[in-house]
UniProtKB/TrEMBL annotation:
The gene is RMND1. GO terms for cellular component: mitochondrion. Residues 81-90 have a biased composition (Polar residues). Residues 148-325 form the DUF155 domain. Residues 69-93 are annotated as: Disordered. Belongs to the RMD1/sif2 family. This is Required for meiotic nuclear division 1 homolog. It holds the Pfam family DUF155. It comes from the Eukaryota. One of its GO terms (biological process) is positive regulation of mitochondrial translation.
Amino acid sequence: HAQSRCPNQLAKTIVYVLYAAQHFNTCVQSLSAVPGQPTSTRHWSFSIQRRFYSTVPVKSVMKPVTVLGSGKKIPKGPRTKQPSRTNQPTPKEDKCIAYATADQYHLPTLCHDLIAHGFYEVDLPRDASNALVICTDNAQKPSDNATMFFFREGSVVFWNVEEKTMKKVMRLLERHEIHPYEVALVHWENEEINYTIGEGNSKLQRGNFLLNSEIDPDEAVLDKFAFSNALSLSVKLAIWEVALDDFVESIQSIPEMLKSGNKIKLSRAEVMQKIGELFSLRHCINLSSDLLITPDFYWDRENLEMLYDKTCQFLNINRRVKVVNEKLQHCTELTDLMRNHLSEKHSLRLEWMIVILITIEVLFEVGRMIF
């Protein structure tokens, strides 16, 4: 009974397979009977479809990554929440623009030079000795005085100064700069904010400055000084950000060389130079500037401190300083790795020299014993 049931099971299995092959064309291309054979002894032939792989490359769905070489850099996005650089002043608004042109200014000689060319100085409180305030009659609009703030740290802020006078001052400024920056970098890394004069307390409103029209000129200069101080820090930080980006670009091949097992193509002197550049930049950002703390000038002037803090917050200075310090920390670890690698390489060279000297001495002793 079991033997008679096996052929039936086998026949059912063959029928199921043939039925599945007819309905799934991915496996079976054709299922046909061989002609010339009787139905009872008919043989089935299967033609299996082959899968061929094309040699033509398939276009990837992912976008290609552009690798920047030594060519022109792509400009970065705006640093502020509302990019003031794109805000053109309306007829009721005046323009305030800040530049960082050098590491430092020599303010005493700059003051004498500007006064000799028809400008006049405005006095500031004694505890604001790091700044120089100069005024001129060549205002861009008659609604406000033309005022310029020069900070010893190498930045200048123009308030309502016409373009011709601004270019003249920039040319005079070149004589008193210490370690000036590139002209293209100076004009790209700037901060420009519009301002108006109206009723109410001075404040930062919707990305623009609002100056109180009811205060006396001396207090108005101090309000402008607080705004200008924050702007000067922002443009100075922008210059340091570019310097850090250039430094990162100069050492970006080191991790790949270490990853691939290649030798570092830097001498000990070049590594020490890189370490010096890194610590110099770190010193400028964290020690010789007011990026981490509020200047002493604002300790007993709460209204000016509020203007200064609000402007720094708008320009994202604290967040940018944090990002810069994180990059500096990573670069410091990388330079330490390079220095340790070169030290180990130097130590290994000395060890081999000692081994060779000992080997030579042993050979001399052996030769003397033999001969």
